[in-house]
Amino acid sequence: MNYQSLVEFQYWTVIGQICNLLLQMYLFKRFLFKPIKNILAQRQSEVDSTYDEAAKAKVDAENAKAEYESHLREARAEAAAITSRAVETAKRQSAELVKAAEAETVALREKATRDIELERRKAMNEAKGEISSLAVELASKVVKKEIDQKDHEALFEQFIDELGEKL
User: Fold this and answer.
1) What is the per-residue DSSP string for the chain?
2) pLDDT digits (tens, 9 = 90+) for 44-87
3) What is the pTM (predicted TM-score) of this model?
4) 123/22 Cα distance (integer angstroms)
5) Is a pLDDT exceeding 60 seen at residue 167?
6) What is the pLDDT of residues 130-166, one digit of tens each?
7) What mean pLDDT do residues 13-26 have?
């Protein structure tokens, strides 16, 4: 076998190999690289759209959270306002009840004072009537008999005793 023919440089073989290489590169680029490049671009756009959707969802979630917190603050403020109005109403009603009770107490006290004064006057009038009748009785007894000092003291004692029993 001739080993030298294996090592020999042949121009036609080199040109054929270069043409073959160029043809393979063209076919790879045309049928292999472009579809793979398109698939990679499509996947990249899908990933980008997923990231965009995730970013939008995050923004929407943050907006929803802010809106929820705003509503919560408003609800708390409204609850505090309702509570303060209820407390004020309760204080006002309790003050009105206390005033009404005090007014009723004053009215009852005045009525009791008037009733006591009436009863006292009635008792005084009755006592005056009794004293008058006793005085008239005493005077009639004194007129009936002449009184000496001893009889005078006895009549006076009797008058006092009768007066004490009637009062």
Assistant:
1) --SHHHHS--HHHHHHHHHHHHHHHHHIIIIIIHHHHHHHHHHHHHHHHHHHHHHHHHHHHHHHHHHHHHHHHHHHHHHHHHHHHHHHHHHHHHHHHHHHHHHHHHHHHHHHHHHHHHHHHHHHHHHHHHHHHHHHHHHHHHHHS---HHHHHHHHHHHHHHHHHH-
2) 999 999 999 999 999 999 999 999 999 999 999 999 999 999 99
3) 0.42
4) 146
5) no
6) 776 777 676 666 666 555 667 667 776 777 777 666 6
7) 93
Query: Is residue 155 within 8 Å of residue 142, measured between CB atoms?
Result: yes
CB atoms within 10 A of CB 163: 14
Residue 107 and residue 98: Cα distance in Å, rounded? 14
Cα 49–chain centre separation:
48
Q: 82 Cβ partners below 8 Å, 6+ apart? A: none
Distances (CA, A) of 114 to 12, 82, 105, 107, 135: 148, 47, 14, 10, 30
